[in-house]
Amino acid sequence: MNETVLQVLLVEDNPADATLIRKLIDRGARCAYQLVAVETLAEAVAAVTRETFSTILLDLTLPDSCGLDTLRRLKAVAPNAPIIILTGIDDEDLAVAALRDGAQDYSLKGHIQAETLVRSMRYAIERQQILQQLQRSEAALQQQLLRERLLSEVTDCIHRSFDLAEILQTTVDKVRLMFTCDRVLVQRCADDGRVTVVVESHHPDCDPAIGWHIGNPYPLIFSDLDGFPTDSPPFDLWSEDLCRIFNVRSRLTAPIWIDNCSSKKGNVSKPKLWGILSVHHCQSQRLWQTMERDLFEQIAHQLAIAIRQVQLYQTLEAANQELQRLASLDGLTQLANRRHFNTCLDREWRRCARGHRPLSLILCDIDFFKAYNDRYGHLAGDECLQEVARAIHSVIKRSSDVVARYGGEEFAAILPETEATAAFYLAESIREQVATLRIPHARSAVSSVVTLSVGIATRVPNPQIDSATIVAEADIALYDAKARGRNCVVLGERQGNSAH
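and the corresponding structure tokens:
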């Protein structure tokens, strides 16, 4: 990314705000960028029509458009551009609606820091790239699925699965029955020219060839092959010696070509020789009919489609998983975000209710964090939040537990099947772990270093009661911890009030 010149479109009609935003980007940017500034929606539409922008910084109040309609109209002409809203309107409902309509982020002009703005731009670009990769994969997958299904029985069988091993085994089994032959195998072609038998189906009287390595006797690169007939070199790599070893009297081979898609432009490049499909007849010599040859090549072609389909499915799955991961994380601390916290709490509440098991919730708040930001600045505040997040995560280690950034300087931990005593022990460990970080805090009224106030609530969930109940109880305990002088842990009233 350091070598990429970011193309940034700023849509802002206030010259002072535009100058400030430009300075913020200058201060926080770690790579080259070109900024195009316009003052109206019409100019913005014209700009995105002429060129592609890495990201768009958009004010919702413009001379020729106002509110969410501004976003929607720009999104209509630039659907793939990541858009960040920069506005002076402090309206949470408007922010949620903007994100729902496709904005990647929503920031208030008076509260923007250079690092925060640049980080928001970077994350917006990354999320949009993942979405576009997802769309490309979906489009390519749909294109593959629309291809003609040749040879209904074999084709249907191999296209039902996304398991490559199952597809290959089904293919060789069906082909052996269809051709009434003694052996069918798939050879995998490695980039170094080594060819290996990876799957086969053979008559019980024939020796297995699985695992045999066949060196490529031809000085060529598989991906550059073109125009070779399917029953001659380099696709028939079985030497006369190998044919004698395995008693092969007649054989038929077909290449398995896999299309390569360029990751940048999505253009189809030269196909790559993925492997070779072979049929062996061992009982006697056999003259292969033209219809058999055509049928065999069609099967190899369909097998290539199925293999590519698996690759696209795996790419799609990976993109989906990465998108889900980004959607559930807080960008600063890399902990679960508030939305993911709510989802996990509801899920664990219902699960513990079914099993009549306890559920504990820990809420933590950094003491005098506003004073910390005022004294050390917001960048130092971000670093403080990151260190505290790592400290909390180092204490909460079970895979079933969930640690989240609950608010600005608030953190939460969901502890399924955890009694109050164990939760209190973990909360105290968290408080001590943060204290041992020794992060200086000159404006704290309770310590010279950063400390936490911690509240705990424990319940055996009732399916008739909302999970918000335990949040309210933990919040009351946290409030009590602050009232007692901060830098302490308080267990909620339902479990017996105690503090340390």
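(Above: one complete record from the training split.) The mean pLDDT is 83.
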